[in-house]
Amino acid sequence: MVHAYILIQTEVGKSASVAKEIEQIPGVTQAEDVTGPYDVIVRAEASSVDDLGKLVMARVQAVEGITRTLTCPVVHF
């Protein structure tokens, strides 16, 4: 299982609605609106890196109000 944090920038005033919509996507385990350079931080999981990419590109980035994403896979050493 691959886990990742997805850092999201949204249009002004859209962070709460974006977080609420993203939280409903299968594979997303948590979505919270935050302050700082990013507006929403998402914790997601997928069975492979390819599936994670599909989740981000096909589902998360399709949410209205998102302007930019940065995906950070979790690594275990």
Automatic annotation (TrEMBL):
Residues 6-74 form the Transcription regulator AsnC/Lrp ligand binding domain. Pfam families: AsnC_trans_reg. SUPFAM superfamilies: Dimeric alpha+beta barrel. Transmembrane segments: none annotated. InterPro entries: Dimeric_a/b-barrel (IPR011008), Tscrpt_reg_AsnC/Lrp_C (IPR019887). This is AsnC family transcriptional regulator.
